[in-house]
Amino acid sequence: MSNTALLLIDLQNDYYPTYDGAKWPLSGTEMASKNAASLLAQFRDNKMPIIHVRHEFPSDDAPFFLPHSAGSKIHPSVEPTEGEAVILKHHINSFRNTDLQKTLEKFKVEKLIIVGAMSHMCIDAVTRAAVDFGYECHVAHDACATLDLEFNGVTVPAHHVHHAFMAALSFGYCKVESTDEILELVR
């Protein structure tokens, strides 16, 4: 897959239940991160573009990803290496008020492999925006994580939230595939 970049969204300490002091632990973060790390290794081996996106809220009264906090740092399992782009964002959509679009243009990217968190927020938002900008998108469903949600007195389990959003994205926006299927594409 030429002109393809790996986009890692918000794989930050506060989302990991195993991280001591995590402020917003998700369901399945460790497994998602393990799969994202497999893709990251393949992209590094192939010398393909890698872009890490890191979220920080602009004030200290946020529930997680506080400015300059340890919880807002990218998790060591998918930590950037020298030369890999890191985009700081303050909104759900990774394109909003960031250099993401310019970075993708610099690398002449046409296709994106998207992984990270949360499935129902930042993964959904970046995928839809990227498609609107003309990128071909692939989401590695098993390299994304989310959490239980509550609406109108009903708790929706994380795996239902995740599957509903993956189904919606695959219905009209992108290819939603497993990590193994995407690894085959980029080998």
UniProtKB/TrEMBL annotation:
InterPro entries: Isochorismatase-like_dom (IPR000868), Isochorismatase-like_hydrls (IPR050272), Isochorismatase-like_sf (IPR036380). The keyword ATP-binding does not apply. GO terms for molecular function: hydrolase activity. Coiled coil: none annotated. Residues 4-150 form the Isochorismatase-like domain. Keywords: Hydrolase. This is Isochorismatase hydrolase. It comes from Colwellia psychrerythraea (Vibrio psychroerythus).
